[in-house]
Amino acid sequence: MGMGRVRDALRFRDGKKNAVKPGDFPVGPTSKSNAAKQLQATADRLDQLQEALYASASQSVLLVLQGMDTSGKGGTIRHACGLVNPQGLHIKSFKKPTRTELKHDFLWRVRRALPTPGMIGVFDRSHYEDVLIAKVDSLVEPDEVEKRYDLINAFEQELADSGVVLIKCFLNISREEQRKRLIARLERPEKHWKYNPADLDARSKWDDYQDAYADALTRCDTDTAPWFVVPSDHKWYRNWAVSQLLLETLESMDPQYPEPSFDVEEELKRVKAAN
Length: 275
Fold this sequence. Notes:
Elements: H1 5-10, H2 32-56, E1 60-67, H3 73-79, E2 89-93, H4 99-102, H5 108-111, E3 120-124, H6 129-136, H7 142-161, E4 164-172, H8 175-187, H9 198-203, H10 206-219, E5 227-231, H11 235-253, H12 264-273
Parallel strand pairs: 1-3, 1-4, 2-3, 4-5
Helix pairs in contact: 2-11, 6-7, 6-10
């Protein structure tokens, strides 16, 4: 798959997660108004490509959204993924594993949530939780985390071989911006539902999480399943960037409408002749 302009600019490289800073504009618009205009143009093209993908039912896309609390996974789904027909979306949010899920290997629940051919799947958190929180909170032994990196790489190669195109986005937010967003959730009554006191527990382990993300990106960045680092201190830029990653990916896939299994001219005559 060829690299597009945005894919190339945001591609994780050289083991340096912070090559793209949370407040940067490494490519594209540098103002909210300009980003809004470009987003509308993107919506029209995305709509066409997504319909062709859905009709062809030959490949699928899996958009993985990972990031610290308040980095904007839900907002990205609403504003970037909301540009396409919801009929062609399959959205899955991964929370703390249930007792049933814990009886199986960590990829079991992920396999059950994969998009079917023709669909765009979106993961709000993902299998990477099992090498992030598991590592930071020492939920498993270090050698088990190491094994999971290899299992994830093998799993993602399996997906690629079966026609699933992955777009893995690390929504890179700064510690100061997270603080502002947590305060906003408490100061605005309509945002109270989004606040979780446990968010502060994770925040207290900020550096550990940054190290865990750096390790996950370094160990699980491959040509078939690359990581992209999306600056996320500016919500409008984050939404624009993810929509462009999705657009460039679909353009490179170039989905085609299937050939009809009937004689079009003959059917047209029949329809016109029908009462």
